Amino acid sequence: DDLAQLPFLTMCIKESLRLHPPVTIISRCCTRDVELPDGRVIPKGNICSISIFGIHHNPSVWPDPEVYDPFRFDPENMKGRSPLAFIPFSVGP
Ligand code: HEM
């Protein structure tokens, strides 16, 4: 109950998990062909490595990605950002 009353602490924890994700990489096996935005296709059966660290430091999503700034997680600043831009616990299958 107390944690729910501490939104700034939550923002700080999230920003710490963004900057220093404890799990830096995960992998997935494609169960079907996956078409990328540029038209290339990852064939079914391929195993893909997904860099959580890289996603969390993508400068087109996170300006000045090396800077610790909890206000990135202020609800106002999260509008329009993909939920997939921050995945310290992965996102399931
Ligand atoms: C800051 C803390 C933690 C982070 C960032 C974290 C992150 C992750 C990530 C990224 C995965 C990989 C999931 C995937 O491949 O989709 C994972 C798997 C897992 N984590 Fe954690 N974890 C944390 C704490 C914990 C704790 C405290 C436990 C247990 C007490 C735990 C238990 C597990 C288990 C059992 C899996 C394997 C799930 C599976 O293979 O389906 N994790 N975790």
From TrEMBL:
Record's keyword annotation contains Iron: yes
Keyword Iron: yes
Keywords, comma-separated and alphabetical: Iron, Metal-binding
Domain of life: Eukaryota
Signal peptide span: none
Pfam families from the UniProt entry: p450
Similarity remark: Belongs to the cytochrome P450 family.
PANTHER family hit by this protein: CYTOCHROME P450 4F3 (PTHR24291:SF198), CYTOCHROME P450 FAMILY 4 (PTHR24291)
Protein name: Leukotriene-B4 omega-hydroxylase 3-like
Taxonomic source organism: Galeopterus variegatus
Lineage: Eukaryota, Metazoa, Chordata, Craniata, Vertebrata
